[in-house]
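Below is one protein, fold included:
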Amino acid sequence: MGLFGDGANGTHQEPLLLLSVEESVSVEGIIVDHKVEKEADRSSSSPGGWRAASLIMASDVFERFAFFGIYTNLIVYLSGPLSQSTATAAANVNAWFGAGFMLPLLGAYISNSFLGPYNSILYFTLLYILGLAMMTFSAIKHSSSPPSSLEVMFFFTSLYTVAIAQAGRKPCAQAFAADQFDIQDPSERRSKCSFFDWWYCALSSGMALSLILSYVQENLGWPLVFGIPCVCMLVSLLLFLVGSKTYRYNVKENETSPYSNIAKEIKQDGFSKAGEVISRLGPIWCTCLIHSVIVAQTSTLYTKQGSTMDRSIGSILQIPAASLAIFVHITAIVTLPIYDRVFVPIARALTGRQSGITTLQRMGFGMFLSIIAMMVSSIVETKRLRTAAEHGVDETVPMSVLWLLPQYILCGVSSANTNVGSTQFFYDEVPNESKSMGLALIFTNIGVGSFLSSLLVTAIERATSDGHGRGNWFPKNLNEGHLDYFYWLIFGLDAAGLIAFIYFSKSYSYRNNGGNAVS
């Protein structure tokens, strides 16, 4: 048995990019033309296909731009105009992000039980626009510092309106776009294989482009930071509506969303099946939580850390602190093709496995890189604090923000391996009729990890404070804090998590015995 568990039967794992369409997405039922309840015509001129899917994809690119544009700048707004402490702002950002990744479970249920995917996307997009319009209005009307309780309440109401809207939209958009391809048709089956790669690249580009809003924030003000995403969601809605007559609709009456199948399985088979899955996957799921905690830092404390440093490039360009997060997205986009096209063939020749390494080994490698990222973050922060002390500065430290680049890149490589590896692992290792449970576990892990990050920051702030809001690790002025201690703490927790992960992985027996054999 190899490191991270080759499985009791010596089975091999298949990389996510090489999964067959049947394994990755199951499309059942009759796919119909717009308002025509008959089996769709398979000809190239029929509705659906790339034309319909591309409109949904383009719509979602604008949505990702809007959501991550808010996310990457939120901590700056909370700690600036809303006058929150660094710890409180980071906790609020993590709580909001965590809610956004926990609520898709509810969104999928609403779509399946009441609205259907098309109406869910439509109605939740309208709610999305409302929330962003409220945020824009809040920024325009903000005038006092510190803000009044009413202003804060209104802003957070609008903020969580956006979270609810994106959560309702999130589980529907990609599934509906994938439904535009019929796996019974050979050409569309090939297109569907490519679709998921293009979907990932498109959304990653939307997330990367959202960092333009960091420049808007520094030069044009907060109303535009929230107003531009609002306009983007209007464009997203228009793109989605344009394709209404080209979409294919699934009219199978008993078709259920992946998430609602969980309740159905429990109702039919009792808790034994769910308990079996949880007992097998639970330890692995728990050891992955600390990685989700680390990911949360890239748009919270990393951003605050960069805001205290010299962000000038030459005498003209000023880099917004939040813009460095683009390297997380770029690194992930670059490394995934390299992994699939370069690393896998080499590893396959060495190990004899079709996928090169197992999914657990890939996840372990990503977690190891996250440990290195935290170590680098701690070292850089120690140097930043030392530089601040030597120069006696209270605000901008004479140290280039590019010192943060390595930790962003390491987080990008780590996320690319851990996220893709865990996606494949949790999908493959649940029973065929319980694939929805595996998908739900992925979203839940990210959401719970974000909440844990929020709780950890809050607990440490209270434990290290002198009772008057001073002396803690996360003061308003980070030059007086100890962010380095926090990074070292996460480093230790991540190392302990990796040890536990290796322990459980070595004894793990893969469920699939034949799907990953050498060709």
Q: What stands out?
A: Residues 31-261 form a domain with the Growth Hormone; Chain: A; fold (CATH 1.20.1250.20). The radius of gyration is 23 Å. The beta strands are 31-32, 249-250, 309-310, 312-313, 317-318, 397-400.
